[in-house]
Design brief:
The complex is a heterodimer of chains A (123) and B (109). Chain A has 123 residues and is mainly beta. Chain A is 0% helix and 54% strand. In chain A, strand 5 and strand 6 (58-60) form a beta hairpin. Chain B has strands spanning 4-6, 9-12, 17-24, 36-40, 47-51, 55-56, 64-69, 72-78, 86-94, 97-100, 104-108. Chain B starts with a strand and ends with a strand. Classes of the chains: A mainly beta (123), B mainly beta (109).
Chain lengths: 123, 109
């Protein structure tokens, strides 16, 4: 059974930093691209970032480019999102998501989602 | 930044059929955009329904189907059930960047 378990969320002041983690199990983690998707309170879904299966290619939404860094440790089956220069508009529930396609260098489709970790940016 | 547009809300009667659409500001949606569809109920994580236009996941109920319709991606629900009341989101791929539509709130009434 595929499981994605996010952690690392919390309350942070504007301008601060936070690192999210996603522990994956139930599939061959190193063979799939992974994404982070967020959802602000009462709003729709927003794709944030993705990383290729091997970690060599990374992709970002314009809204987070230059502030967020995605990475992965395939030996630990873990996905990360390092967030810095946080703003109030980054407040959201952050989901980790698995790509459908085996061996993809870029994200195209999502099949499994975690339950999310909440990030609140406020003074 | 490319914008993906969905109907904000739709209402359907139980047992009826409804089609949700997903349009791209970049032009017609094609197979190259790998359109996906997701269902989200209040307080729950999204659930994947359709990928690459019309492919179903193993858990996708048969009444859900995906297609391309008039330059848009489309999700059709045939024989709507009360439990289909939810928010539905499309997702489109643009060369490594993914963009979600704003979502459609489907009411079953």
């Amino acid at each position: 059974e595929v499981q994605l378990l996010e952690s690392g969320g919390g309350l942070v002041q504007p301008g601060g930093s936070l690192r999210l983690s996603c522990a994956a199990s139930g599939f061959t983690f190193r063979s799939y691209a992974m994404s982070w998707v967020r959802q602000a309170p009462g709003k729709g879904l927003e794709w944030v970032s993705a990383i290729s299966d091997g970690g060599g290619y990374t992709y970002y939404a314009d809204s987070v480019k230059g502030r967020f860094t995605i990475s992965r440790d395939n030996s630990q089956n873990t996905l990360y999102l390092q967030m810095s220069s946080l703003r109030a508009e980054d407040t959201a529930l952050y989901y980790c998501a698995k790509d459908v396609s085996w061996g993809a260098t870029m994200p195209t489709s999502i099949d499994y989602w975690g339950r999310g970790t909440r990030v609140t940016v406020s003074s | 930044q490319t914008v993906v547009t969905q109907e904000p809300s739709l209402t359907v009667s139980p047992g009826g059929t409804v089609t949700l659409t997903c349009a791209s500001s970049a032009g017609a949606v094609t197979s190259a955009y790998f359109p996906n569809w997701f269902q989200q109920k209040p307080g729950q994580a999204p659930r994947a329904l359709i990928y690459s236009i019309s492919n179903k996941h193993s858990w996708t109920p048969a009444r859900f189907s995906g297609s391309l319709l008039g330059g848009k991606a489309a999700l059709t629900v045939s024989g709507v059930q009360p439990e289909d009341e939810a928010d539905y989101y499309c997702l489109v791929h643009y060369g490594g960047v993914l963009v979600f539509g704003g979502g459609t709130k489907l009411t079953v009434l």
